[in-house]
Design goal:
This protein is mainly alpha-helical. It has a three-stranded antiparallel β-sheet, sandwiched between helices.
């Protein structure tokens, strides 16, 4: 796998991150807890848009809970797991994913949750601001799936039929695009993944990602998802992986 791909995934969350969300409170004086957070190996990335920016596809309350509670919990639990093993000090999230089969389950679950969500936020953009597939990506989609419509149908099928919680992915493997799905917080970078590859698009199908608005209608959530895909990020990831 091109090492630039792995590096760019989390770098994008930093490069595209905007200012702190409007509802954030003014910064408080440093405390022991805040200093500990600052020194933590992994941190919750700021979103590059406001919580309400993805409406009507994804509602503000879902985004607020998904990012501020669920993702934050993965970060906190990952830091606790890494701190418990001095041998993991300084390890990157990509390094952890690449040898996760040898590490505690807490790192697989929470490290996967942190990596997956950090990527996911960069793959979303307000309606009308996500651009379009690049010529190179559109050509590859047509080559490997027949058409854009056929690709979206296959991607939605993988996401809809993922039993329970998990993710659907578009990856680059051996120079070609492939759709896969993973359970829980697993991802295609993990050494234990059934199919490994460089992720260029992903959708979260855990119920917390959509249930407030769509209840059990996962298919409706997936239909709406396409209106907020950030193709600019997808194009960049595909270019790095090619």
């Amino acid at each position: 796998m091109n090492p630039l791909v792995v590096t760019s995934v989390l770098a994008l969350s930093v490069l595209t991150a905007g200012p702190v969300l409007a509802e954030a409170a003014p910064a408080a004086a440093p405390t022991a807890a805040s200093e500990a957070d600052a020194a933590a190996a992994f941190t919750l990335p700021a979103l590059p848009y406001a919580y309400e920016a993805l409406e009507p596809a994804i509602d503000a309350e879902t985004m607020r809970i998904h990012h501020g509670r669920h993702h934050k919990s993965y970060v906190d639990n990952l830091n606790a797991a890494v701190t418990a093993d001095p041998a993991l000090a300084g390890a990157s999230i990509e390094d952890l994913m690449g040898r996760v089969s040898t590490l505690p389950t807490a790192i697989r679950n929470n490290g996967g949750g942190h990596f997956n969500h950090s990527l996911f936020w960069t793959l979303l953009a307000p309606v009308g601001q996500g651009g379009e597939p690049s010529a190179a990506l559109a050509e590859a989609i047509t080559r490997d799936f027949g058409s854009m419509d056929a690709f979206k149908t296959a991607f939605n099928q993988a996401a809809t039929t993922r039993f329970g919680s998990g993710w659907a992915w578009l990856i680059v493997k051996d120079g070609k695009l492939q759709i896969v799905s993973t359970p829980n917080q697993d991802n295609p970078l993990m050494d234990l993944a059934e199919v490994k590859g460089a992720p260029v698009l992903a959708v979260d199908v855990w119920e917390h990602a959509y249930y407030l608005k769509y209840q059990n209608k996962r298919a409706d959530y997936l239909t709406a998802f396409w209106s907020v895909v950030n193709w600019n990020t997808v194009n960049s990831l595909y270019a790095d992986a090619s």
